[in-house]
Amino acid sequence: xxxxxxxxxxxxxxxxxxxxxxxxxxxxxxxxxxxxxxxxxxxxxxxxxxxxxxxxxxxxxxxxxxxxxxxxxxxxxxxxxxxxxxxxxxxxxxxxxxxxxxxxxxxxxxxxxxxxxxxxxxxxxxxxxxxxxxxxxxxxxxxxxxxxxxxxxxxxxxxxxxxxxxxxxxxxxxxxxxxxxxxxxxxxxxxxxxxxxxxxxxxxxxxxxxxxxxxxxxxxxxxxxxxxxxxxxxxxxxxxxxxxxxxxxxxxxxxxxxxxxxxxxxxxxxxxxxxxxxxxxxxxxxxxxxxxxxxxxxxxxxxxxxxxxxxxxxxxxxxxxxxxxxxxxxxxxxxxxxxxxxxxxxxxxxxxxxxxxxxxxxxxxxxxxxxxxxxxxxxxxxxxxxxxxxxxxxxxxxxxxxxxxxxxxxxxxxxxxxxxxxxxxxxxxxxxxxxxxxxxxxxxxxxxxxxxxxxxxxxxxxxxxxxxxxxxxxxxxxxxxxxxxxxxxxxxxxxxxxxxxxxxxxxxxxxxxxxxxxxxxxxxxxxxxxxxxxxxxxxxxxxxxxxxxxxxxxxxxxxxxxxxxxxxxxxxxxxxxxxxxxxxxxxxxxxxxxxxxxxxxxxxxxxxxxxxxxxxxxxxxxxxxxxxxxxxxxxxxxxxxxxxxxxxxxxxxxxxxxx
Length: 659
Fold this sequence. Notes:
The protein has helices spanning 2-14, 16-27, 34-52, 65-71, 96-119, 150-158, 162-174, 181-194, 199-216, 222-226, 235-242, 248-260, 264-276, 283-292, 300-316, 323-333, 340-353, 360-370, 376-390, 405-416, 419-429, 441-458, 461-471, 480-492, 499-508, 515-527, 532-550, 562-574, 578-590, 597-604, 609-621, 627-637, 642-658. It is mostly helical. Among the domains are: 2-54; 144-279, no CATH class; 478-593; 594-659. The chain is elongated, with a radius of gyration of 37 Å.
């Protein structure tokens, strides 16, 4: 590439005078004085080009460069479902619960397929894939080494067979075979990570506890759930005590395991024992102990004193803090009461002094600290300062708590009713791939649900509908609360003409069996009288709602209420659909519901003479006090036959006598 470009540069240098002469000839007849300026500019450009052209020797592209380039040419389709469901339109979820169910089902299917492939590799020996993709090939999950050896122990550690690894270690000790320190470190790490049990046994139990916690609606700290999992004198402690020599790495595995599984007091005892053995701690030990410090003290000042003491010991032992260290401090400060605000500011300043950039988790902890009982103005100032500092930045996940920031910040925006900050936060989400830090689909739905609720509360309906079409269903599946917020926003801005289109979305999203949403929709349509075109669309919508009430389906349906019957009847009357309205009145009788007097009076104004007589008879069937009044109106307003007048007169006199 360098030689051709060099020749191009020489060509421009040799022919620069020819180019300038042509310019002079073509522009010489003009009198604007541009000729000399053009000549000077062309000469400067040619000189600059010949001096600054630098051709790189080689350009290295990542393996995903082509896919990234292709993805940059298209944008997200807001009308489509999430990409993970587009292979099978039949399984496209309509509600947030279906989205979560289908996501878990897909992940379960992948796990089942992976389990089958890894446990039966003999059926998958041939690889027809081109190019070869190692991660899609069977992994070795079965034990190949049965003899008692250190290699067999390493194999069990690699495959995360906790109980098998402990058993092999004990057999090596009984045989008098030494185990190197590096293998011992790996074994302790494995045991402490999974708390002396195999991962397959631990996972479902933890998941079940989390599910029970959600169902019961109790807010419990994860530490309370895990406290009972660290057993006294378990294999981790037993193997640790059997070691002839214990270094910092051994203590690190033990202490981190104790903190992870709730044995906070034992963790500090192990740390004290390590110091007595004249060993220095590593950064992982200090990070774990900082998180555990508030758990072993009751008073706020004692908790902060414990954290400060650990930080001083870090300095004395010349252990350099990292991002997770400061995040652990900020996270622990959330349990230090009124001391937290001042100390969190000092912590952030210390981070900046050491050249450590805070992550999203750092700011999330700061927001949580300042929003505990703070005034509205102080809360707004802190939120504005944080979002202003983060504006335009692109982030990568550096801490597991990074995925909580956007969720918490949007909750604060909703609590403060701060729409401007919500817009800035959403703009930050859209920078680069920051959207990945929203977390899983469940957290993403909560984030956009809060954002949409704030829009419905504070924004004009045209803007609300713009965001509604942008978010649903590609990013957000509205729940009943979100749909009711949307209905209230339509009512606030007097855009009830959009209700029929919203009803179609309600059906598509699977919320047409939610009584509160349907009742509110009908109430809004029936509250006022609109133009004939709008009333016609309302009547068509009301008939569709009626079909939802009447249809048979597996899931629980809607039960007719007097309000829903009255609203649909009124909507049909206003669109001059008298026959369908009369059928709705018959439903009152079959469903043992009593119509309101106002509805009967409204119906009387729009029906025929024969229907008026039947209406008064229906009122008498319900033993309504309005029967004489309705009979009197019918006698005065309709051209009736003698037989019809006799019937109405009898009903009028019967009603008056009963009073």
